[in-house]
């Protein structure tokens, strides 16, 4: 730390500079803050308020305070009888969504790690091309990419046609409209979100440490799990967060590839604002989802802080 | 909060208005997606020197939610029968009195005194049709006119069925199969419906609105669908046949109406009158493949539509059942059944 300046004039000059800097900083931040406030915080506030109101006839809300939306999430007041009983319907929708998102995250990690490692170990001038190829699918709309996937895995799609032509199959593999299809779709959609942060971590990896590991008679697996993975951990965590969160709220993929027989969180929330005519419950369900996401982010933030503490 | 919502609404109207302000007048139409014949729109634009802006929705409820949120800038909407009744009740529609317009004489008298708009003070017919199902007769060659094919399917159809991803259409079909009334608040009967649906669900492959594509791609051999969609699907898969189940099926009509506070009220009225002209109504039918309720339009309709089984009901088919909007308690129960079914 530098000692406080002795000269009062210099001190005043520094103070005025910081003041000016502060004004500049505020001016530069203001537009972004304004946007965040109006299009993020304000709607969130409306959602929060709505979740504590009573549903209006044919949609909308009436201004009567109620916690029914939150009760409804776990309990059932009047299906078929009037007692308040535990209702696992919504919970199981959430659990299935979480399970699918976790599975997709794991799948993306298993596929993404070798990819990122491969790119990071290429000569520097080739890496940009590989990264470009990873981000290439983003040039196409998610809906179209998902639809393309549907065409590939359907009963009369490319995979089944080829496998049956070469005689490996007698009847088509039923992949489409199953959970497997949703997994494949989610992994495919969000894989770049896994590869990019992993690459950022692995690129900075000091391969002398890997060499050192081998010199100390570690085998390949030990080097991977005791040297590379710990050093790539920030990238792993970031990648997992970036895949898990959009996977949790995914709407198009389960709808198109899952066949719509089972509700996912996103579809269930959308339904409340449509046919179910229950905006407060839709708002409450959205907030519960958001709370889950924030919890995940908190875990991430804590992991990042721990890492910083280690470095200091 | 209301004021803020208004403000956003006003901003969106401004954006809307500035996007296309070339022609003399404008008309903003909010219709179901893939349901408007663009040639017909062009004809209207040329006839009245009006620039038409078209926007789409995929369900009555989505449209209602948007309209209820406030100033959308839309002039014309095309709600289904029950939604017309809801919107009149909520004060969302302008009473434009189509029944006093020049072309009203063309409206088929059976569509004038309808329960959703008696005497037609707010709306006019756009298209009408039925919601039943269509099945590939080479896969299943038995009697197709029964809902049992969906709820207790023969071996060949198991796992080859698409249901509409629509709470009302699925539950109403279940109620008909069991012989119970629509908009049913009877809990014992609803419990039976839930059991029926749960037992049938393993035999359904998908629940999706994209019925034409499901059928033509060979993903399924039976799909709950609308008659016009069934006809479009048959064009690509000739062995499909549209069923008129003996237990009954849903009838519906979409209607052209003007929103309260429509920014281009006079043009909207011109459009209402325009849509009651037989030639213009036929243009819509030739595109969307449904009947239109305007007398004299047959003359301008494609030959094949006049004899198609999807449009011309067989003599022995039951009357289509036009389902009224259900009270909130019933919607809540339906909603729970639907969530249980899909949990």
UniProtKB/TrEMBL annotation, chain A:
PROSITE patterns: ABC_TM1. It comes from the Bacteria. Residues 94-300 form the ABC transmembrane type-1 domain. Keywords: Cell membrane, Membrane, Transmembrane, Transmembrane helix, Transport. The chain crosses the membrane at residues 28-53, 93-117, 129-153, 173-202, 223-252, 281-301. It is found in: Cell membrane. It is a multi-pass membrane protein. Its main location: membrane. Signal peptide: none annotated. Pfam families: BPD_transp_1. PANTHER family: INNER MEMBRANE ABC TRANSPORTER PERMEASE PROTEIN YDCU-RELATED, INNER MEMBRANE ABC TRANSPORTER PERMEASE PROTEIN YDCU-RELATED-RELATED. Belongs to the binding-protein-dependent transport system permease family. CysTW subfamily. This is ABC transporter permease.
From TrEMBL, chain B:
The keyword Signal applies. Pfam families: SBP_bac_8 (PF13416). InterPro entries: SBP (IPR006059), Sperm_putr-bd (IPR001188). Residues 1-23 form the signal peptide. It is found in: Periplasm. Keywords: Periplasm, Signal, Transport. The keyword Transport applies. Required for the activity of the bacterial periplasmic transport system of putrescine. Belongs to the bacterial solute-binding protein PotD/PotF family. This is Putrescine-binding periplasmic protein.
